Amino acid sequence: MAGLIKKQILKHLSRFAKNLSPDKINLSTLKGEGQLTNLELDEEVLQNMLDLPTWLAINKVFCNKAVIRIPWTKLKTHPISLYLDKVVMEMSTCEEPRSPNGPSPIATASGQSEYGFAEKVVEGISLSVNSIVIRIKAKAFNASFELSQLKVYSVNTSWQLSDLRFTRIQDPQRGEILTFKEISWQMIRIEADAIQSGDHEILSAPVRLITNQSKIKVTLKRRMKDCNVVASKLILFLDDLLWVLTDSQLKAMVQYAKSLSEVMEKSAQQRKSMASESNQNPAPAPTSQQVRTQQTAAAADQNATNAKLFSSYDVQETSHHLQIKHLDLHICDDIHSKDREKQLRHFITLPGNSAWLMAERRAVHPSVPSITGVEGVLRTLHISQDG
Q1: Residue 40, Cβ neighbours under 10 Å: how many?
Q2: What percent of the chain shows pLDDT beyond 70?
Q3: Distance, CA of 141 to CA of 118 (rounded, Å)
């Protein structure tokens, strides 16, 4: 039995790389530790696992070195630890929405569909990356993201590191399971540069942003019968943000946002259409006989408690949220401004320890202006001008 579980877990891990087989991992992890080099990761598997929106595609992913530690005797409570040195990812935006994400790699690797022990172990993996570089090619601009000391780990409902058994809530009656993840990093450097074309008379300087330690809280809801993600909630937290922009850089950002809004809207319409089809043909809930075989009289009260807890943290639909604790944005004229004696500086500030700038976007029912509303949002903020 132990050998079968080990085989399933290693088969899961091998799916994430193109040039790796379970046998190669097995030879290097007999003692629970191993090292791998020059890995080319599978773009489609990562795309499905991350549940990326269909306006964004992964083209290539490379990792120079990976170290894995598997606590074979504590898999129920302790995560598999995966350490990556440097990861380079190339992505692009899609003019037309690509095909929807396929089945979850968590299920397909083991050859079974139900969310079982091996699937719990793989989803509980903790990941540490020394540095990751993400390059994105869009229609109007190229962008890059450089992150250092990235960590991904499972947490409990209080967003604290915990025994893996407390990082998920299962409801057999619904046939669904909630899992909680946190992503943190020490520093991120973002740069966006316009693609040269005849439409731009004067090219602006690249837009750059460097932030300190930040984190993302993720809640995933999966179907237990096939492990597919039904809905997810992502919250990005930023503390103090100081940003200095020139007028041309601000205009460039608005153009970048407009260029993305079209493909994002097409993707949202695709997802909305898929959601309506899914509602018309809902997945069958577990039968009373199946539920009875899964629970005993002694576990009935526990299942009722879990169902109540599940409802408290349930994710009804996919949504993305942004919270900034303190925003200090400075906008100034360009150096090449014709009237240098009357250069202006503008300030947009949300001061105070308790002041939060919050925004959200829902995939099916948008409740706030989408990225096309950036211009309007900026107009609504208080702008003071010093002459």
Answers
A1: 13
A2: 68
A3: 42
Question: Quick check: helix, strand or coil at residue 353?
Answer: coil
Q: Where is pLDDT greater, at 19 or 81?
A: 81
Q: What is the pLDDT of residues 64-80, one digit of tens each?
A: 998 888 888 898 999 99
Q: Is 245 exposed, middle or buried (0-12, 13-18, 19+ CB in 10 A)?
A: buried
User: What are the structure tokens assigned to 206, written together?
Assistant: 């690249």
φ, ψ at 49 (rounded to 5°)? -65, -40
Residue 147 CA to residue 236 CA, distance in Å, equals 15
How many percent of the chain have pLDDT more than 90?
27
Ramachandran class of 20: left when φ > 0, alpha when ψ lies in -120 to 50, beta otherwise = beta
Q: How far is CA 93 from the centre of its chain?
A: 16
Q: Which of 186-190, 257-261, 359-363 has the lowest mean pLDDT?
A: 359-363
Task: Determine the residue type at 73.
Answer: T
Within 8 A by CB and 6+ apart from 251, the residues are: 204
CA 24 to centroid of chain Cα atoms: 29
Using CA atoms, how far apart are residues 110 and 118, in angstroms rounded to an integer?
8
User: How do beta strands 56-69 and 319-332 pair?
Assistant: unpaired
Mapped onto helix, strand or coil, the DSSP state of residue 189 is strand
Residue-wise pLDDT for 233-258, tens only, equals 999 998 878 888 888 888 888 888 88
Widest CA span of the chain, in angstroms? 82
Burial of 184 (0-12, 13-18, 19+ CB in 10 A): middle
Cα(321)–Cα(160) distance, integer angstroms:
20
Please write the tens of the pLDDT for every residue from 305-318. 888 899 999 998 88
Instruction: Retrieve residue 115's tokens.
Output: 């969310």
Collapsing DSSP to helix, strand or coil, 304 comes out as: helix
